[in-house]
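Incident log, support desk, overnight shift.

02:14 A customer reports that sequence design results differ from what the structure should imply. Their input is reproduced verbatim below. On-call engineer (initials T.W.) acknowledged and began investigating.
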């Protein structure tokens, strides 16, 4: 992070911080910390902008990112489909009345019992990337529609996925032919450019690979019905990322130029992009100490209580930060190491972040852009409670809301 960005961050909230969750509003919330304040109107805005940016592409929200019932309900009310990683996620959707037929099961390796239950519930589209999974699907969900996960370049993402998942381009054709032979329906192709992808060309390259596969399969008499662009659409934290408009500017012409035909369904599975910016994590300062000349802040939230992505990126990950101090933008700032409440040092979240020199026990730290991969990662490690979500704004009915809802509809 450059000094210029640091100074700016000290004086102004980033432009993407939800207006409904400004420091004064957060200071007025008399709730025990930690909690995650979520502005559902931001989710609505993100969804609407995403749907408009890439015309003709249907959204299937990757609910692993934040499975709060309010967020699911808000997106369902807007007409979003959903992508699940497990039967547990499908059950959560069923509880709020989502039709499993509108759900994609995009985890390429699934427990056998989950396949059976999902199929029985009416889910009909399953991803795969291996021969083993195809045999499993053919046996447990005969006739199901299957879409292949391609391995693509995810090297410009913050969270790569292609080492764990994805068939090589040269294997993919044979795998879809095998699917047909096994009585399954060769339905589509998908990929994931890695979460928080930093370059627009990653989508163009991946679409080119999907297009080459579609062309090869056409020669075998197989016309795919779905191209699923996966996730990876970045959210704004501190570092600069390609805008949705820039990404759409790469995807839209690529769909025109690089596919031999337009499949009936163009899909995408955004997670982070739809929800990250909607939420602020609110934590309390439990202690302030100097250790070997380093300023340490101890919070009631750490990597194990929702901020795990700070660990996954070897402390390179930056979130926009603010405090409850009324002198936040007035006093000099000092570099702090910010850690969690547990007895484990690996719950440390930030090194060298600038915070007011006055910050002390009892103050609150506001961690912006915290709506993605936080609640769903949080544990009770060391007996400390995970953050509770609270919601403002939005269009969802409140039937499934946690008790601590504030404001909004
Ligand atoms: C299959 C699949 N689709 C979509 C996503 C969502 O990715 P993102 O949050 O980067 O949009 C993920 C995330 O891991 C995923 O595994």
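02:41 Re-run completed on a clean worker. Output:
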């Amino acid at each position: 992070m450059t000094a210029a960005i640091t100074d700016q961050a000290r004086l102004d909230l980033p432009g993407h911080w939800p207006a409904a969750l400004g420091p004064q509003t957060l200071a007025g919330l008399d709730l025990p910390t930690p909690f995650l304040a979520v502005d559902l109107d931001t989710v609505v805005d993100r969804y609407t902008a995403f749907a408009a940016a890439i015309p003709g592409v249907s959204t299937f929200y990757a609910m692993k990112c934040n499975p709060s019932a309010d967020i699911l309900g808000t997106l369902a009310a807007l007409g979003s489909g959903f992508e699940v990683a497990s039967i547990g996620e499908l059950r959560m959707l069923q509880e709020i009345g989502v039709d499993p037929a509108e759900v994609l099961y995009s985890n390429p390796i699934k427990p056998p019992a989950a396949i059976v239950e999902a199929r029985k519930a009416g889910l009909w589209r399953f991803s795969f990337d291996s021969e083993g999974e195809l045999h499993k699907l053919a046996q447990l969900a005969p006739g199901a529609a299957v879409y292949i996960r391609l391995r693509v370049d995810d090297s410009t993402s913050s969270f790569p996925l292609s080492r764990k998942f994805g068939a090589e381009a040269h294997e993919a054709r044979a795998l879809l032919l095998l699917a047909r032979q096994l009585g399954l329906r060769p339905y589509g192709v998908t990929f994931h450019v890695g979460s928080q992808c930093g370059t627009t060309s990653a989508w163009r390259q991946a679409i080119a690979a999907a297009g080459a596969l579609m062309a090869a399969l056409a020669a075998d008499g197989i016309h795919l019905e779905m191209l699923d662009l996966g996730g990876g659409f970045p959210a704004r934290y501190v570092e600069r990322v390609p805008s949705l408009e820039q990404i759409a500017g790469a995807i839209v012409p690529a769909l025109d130029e690089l596919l031999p035909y337009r499949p009936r369904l163009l899909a995408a599975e955004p997670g982070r992009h739809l929800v990250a910016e909607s939420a602020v994590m609110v934590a309390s300062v439990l202690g302030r100490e100097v250790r070997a000349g380093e300023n340490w802040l101890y919070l009631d939230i750490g990597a194990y209580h929702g901020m795990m992505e700070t660990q996954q990126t070897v402390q390179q990950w930056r979130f926009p930060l603010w405090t409850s101090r009324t002198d936040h933008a007035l006093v000099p700032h000092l570099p702090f190491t910010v850690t969690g409440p547990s007895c484990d040092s690996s719950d440390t979240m930030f090194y060298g972040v600038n915070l007011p020199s006055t910050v002390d026990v009892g103050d609150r730290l506001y961690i912006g852009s915290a709506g993605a991969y936080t609640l769903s990662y949080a544990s009770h490690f060391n007996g400390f409670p995970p953050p509770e979500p609270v919601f403002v704004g939005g269009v969802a009915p409140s039937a499934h809301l946690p008790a601590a809802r504030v404001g909004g509809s």
